[in-house]
Amino acid sequence: MEVIHKDEVEHATEPQYDRQNELKAFDDTKAGVKGLVDAGITEVPRFFIQPPEPLDANPQSNFPIIDLQGMIDYEAPVKRKEIVEKVRDASETWGFFQVVNHGIPCGVLDEMIDGVRRFYEQETEVKKQWYTPDPSKRVVYNSNFDLYSSPAANWRDTFYCIMAPNPLSPQDLPPVCSDILIKYSKEILKLGNSLFELLSEALGLNPNHLKDMDCSEGLALICHYYPACPQPELTLGTSKHSDNDFLTVLLQDNIGGLQVLHQNQWVDVPPTPGALVVNVGDLLQLISNDKFKSSEHRVVANQAGPRVSVACFFSTSLLPSEKLYGPIKELLSPENPPKYKETTVNNYVTYSLGRGLDGISPLLHFKL
Which InterPro entries match (predicted)? Predict the structure, then answer.
């Protein structure tokens, strides 16, 4: 006689769960996670539920904060050397740091956050015209680029726009935030050039080395909106991942939720007024031959939302370039041979996006 276990009976009597159908129904609304919250849901839909993992984090008061005051003063070499040493240490040990006195006025930062909030809080019918699953478009709004392939959806909506090397004009952008997107991207490009100089020097190279490799040529602004979540312990705002670019500069509001995996422990990145978060991307880890670290990070869901952030990705992923990137030859030696094979930026990013946010670093695929 066959024995049927209790959990098998419970499973057999569960209503049939059609995940793909639920995902499509959600996607077809073009209203995103904000649409669910606006509809008054009190429980997280099943396709957002993440596998159980600890959400507690160490607040770590020693998260690196670097004062860039004097960064471009070549007549004060001692100060610049101090900044370069701090950038080197943070890039090697954390892969993350915050910068203050970076040259972008606080009013511009505040207006950028407000502009993102205005985009998401306008009528759904207005936003829908930007909604698309096609990642090749220069302006994209959707909820979860990997909605149909990820193990669980993230509790956030996203829109992004490609702002360099060929900047978009105001009529190509959402009217409620077009001016600030253009203004902010110009400021970030200037800051990015300075950061790549510091990173070049931190690698022991000429200040222009990374810029001459076109690391600072492409820029995408990725604007996230994390609505308040009724059951934040069941899902994540953004799953564990590393960034598939050269460098990311992140603006976050005061809600908090960003965490970095440091020494096998999740550490909160505290919102600091006027500061920007900078993190090493996979491609910079690859070309630095593991000298700099592209750290995994995530965003926890919370009930205090909505949380707004703007991640600026330095990457040329949408350019039709066959330029190959591998470990920088000046950094190699018999004791430090290349650890990665060469790849184009487009090939790396295509592979990374094809995987989705599955928690496994795409860098492993390119190891020699």
Answer: DIOX_N (IPR026992), IPNS-like_FE2OG_OXY (IPR044861), IPNS-like_sf (IPR027443), Oxoglu/Fe-dep_dioxygenase_dom (IPR005123)
Beta strands in 125-190 (DSSP E): 139-142, 157-164
d(CA 48, CA 313): 26
| Alpha-carbon torsion (342, 241, 189, 157), positive or negative | positive
pLDDT in tens, 247-299: 999 999 999 999 999 998 999 998 999 999 999 999 999 999 999 999 999 99
Which two structure tokens, joined as six digits, stand for 250? Answer: 């992140």
Q: Strands of 276-280's sheet, edge to edge?
A: 65-67, 96-100, 276-280, 247-252, 307-314, 219-226, 157-164, 139-142
Q: From 244, 248, 201, 180, select the one nearest 83 (Cα to Cα).
A: 201
Does residue 48 carry a pLDDT above 90? yes
Return the residue matching tokens 């006195």: 101
In sequence order, what are the residues at sequence separation of 6 or more whose Cβ sits closer than 8 angstroms to the Cβ of residue 301?
A: 155, 226, 229, 232, 234, 235, 236, 237, 257
Whether residue 248 contacts residue 312, with contact meaning beta carbons closer than 8 Å, is answered with: yes
Decide if 348 contacts 283 (C-beta within 8 A): yes
- Cα-only R_g, the chain: 21
Query: Whose CA is closest to 55, among 290, 242, 298?
Result: 298
Buried (b) or exposed (e) across 113-126, using 16+ Cβ within 10 A? bebbbebbeeeeee
Please report how many Cα atoms fall inside a 13 Å half-sphere around the Cα of residue 62, on the Cβ side.
6
Which residue is listed with tokens 């839909």? 45
Yes or no: say if 64 and 94 are a contact pair by the CB < 8 Å rule: yes
H or E stretch at 191:
helix 178-202
